[in-house]
Amino acid sequence: MDTEKTYTLRDLETTEFSGTPLAVIGHPIQHSVSPAMHNAALAKLSATDSRFMDWAYYRFDIAPEDFAQALPLFHQRNFLGLNLTIPHKVQAMDLIKGVSPDAEVAGAVNTLVWDELGYDGFNTDGYGLSKALELDLGVSLKGANVMLLGSGGAARGAAVQCVLEGCAQLYVGNRTPSRLQELMHVIGGMSGGECAKTFAFSQLPDDLPEQGVVVNATSLGLKEGDPAPIDVSQLPSGWKVYDMIYNPLTALLEQAHAEGLPIGNGLSMLVHQGARSLEIWSHHEVDAHAMMTAACHALNLPPRHD
Fold first, then answer.
1. Inter-residue contact 59 to 32 (CB < 8 Å)
2. Which of 110, 90, 26, 107 is CA-nearest to residue 60?
């Protein structure tokens, strides 16, 4: 089977995927480098363990209105593991069998594992973000001041991770007030959730400390010409900026760089959340460096040494 092709619901209905198939599901998904990096890691695993020789990772473009129909088909086709990206992370919560405690709190899943009765859900986004901030920007979430932009599935995982690791202050902003309140309700029910407060994108909090990190979890930046969610020039000079979007370089990161602020993009988060997903599926240690190398190659970027 061709692991570079983008498959559809029709392909899922008519094609037999042999061996042990894995997949990422999103809409849109054509830009995703997940197949390249996961198949690179699988090649490393199969070099030393024959159990992984027939494992392969695919890419599926499934529209939101087709997701509820598609998920049982993936189960019937014996897809051992699924990664979910925009816009399926929250919708999946109502369609799966079991949910890990952190994903339950976040109200979003990005990793599904096959079980006889259905799929169990996990959220590795928070782990990926924590690892990425540490590697790219030298930021530990414990004791950090974090400005989180967005309140969708990725933001939920990030917010829960921030609270679990003990951030000092969590500022959460979003374009849609109702979704923002849903996320605040989630955080408010957690031990340590009192660290969170809301703000509007048009007006950053006026009590920002001298140091902190902005994390963009909105989709602003996926399309060319998208504006930055916030005015970076309002940030104190000691802040750093991380964007979960890894392709292309977003307006937010361009503005932050122009302001002289340290920046990081979502490639490292993608790699480390993906490595954690593959560890959950394989019950085996995964080579994240091989995944990073493959992702950089797929994006025509110079190699990194994370």
1. yes
2. 26
Residues identified as active-site: 89
Edge-to-edge, what's the strand order for the sheet holding 196-199? 196-199, 169-173, 145-149, 211-216, 238-243, 263-265
Residues in the chain where the model's pLDDT stays below 50? none
Instruction: From 174, 22, 147, 160, select the one nearest 84 (Cα to Cα).
Output: 22
Please report where in the chains the tokens 């967005």 appear, as a residue. 150
Cis peptide before 28 (omega within 30 of 0): yes
For residue 188, give the H/E element and its range.
Answer: helix 177-188
In contact, 28 and 61? CB cutoff 8 Å = yes
Asked if residue 112 lies in contact with residue 93, where contact means CB atoms within 8 angstroms, the answer is no
Cα dihedral: 104, 148, 168, 206 (round 10):
-140
pLDDT of residue 306: 61
At residue 303, the pLDDT reads 82
80 Cα distance to chain centroid: 19
State the pairing for strand pair 118-122/111-115: antiparallel
What is the 3-class SS of 106-117, one letter each residue?
HCCCCEEEEECC
Q: Are 90 and 153 in contact (CB under 8 A)?
A: yes
Pairing mode, strands 111-115 and 81-84: antiparallel
Amino acid type, 197: K
Helix, strand, or coil here: 130?
helix
Instruction: Give the global pTM.
Output: 0.90
Q: Which residue in 49, 51, 57, 69 sits closest to 29, CA to CA? A: 57
The span from the CA of 109 to the CA of 18, in Å, is 26
